[in-house]
Design goal:
Blueprint (H helix, E strand, L loop, with lengths): L1 H13 L2 H42 L1
Length: about 60
């Protein structure tokens, strides 16, 4: 019984899939934060550019 438990714990210790999934999740969250920050910072200037284009097309 003790040997079987030891084998199971050793198997869990060497399994890296969970750690890799967490790392990919953290990278995806960081990319999302950077994209949101960029859109927020550039939002007004992009909106002004589209408004200028629309106004020039209407004239």
């Amino acid at each position: 019984m003790k040997m079987k438990m030891f084998q199971i714990l050793n198997g869990l210790k060497s399994d890296k899939k969970g750690a890799t999934a967490i790392e990919y999740g953290l990278i995806a969250a960081l990319v999302a934060v950077v994209i949101i920050a960029g859109i927020t910072l550039m939002g007004d200037s992009i909106g002004n550019t589209f408004n200028n284009v629309a106004n020039n097309l209407n004239n």
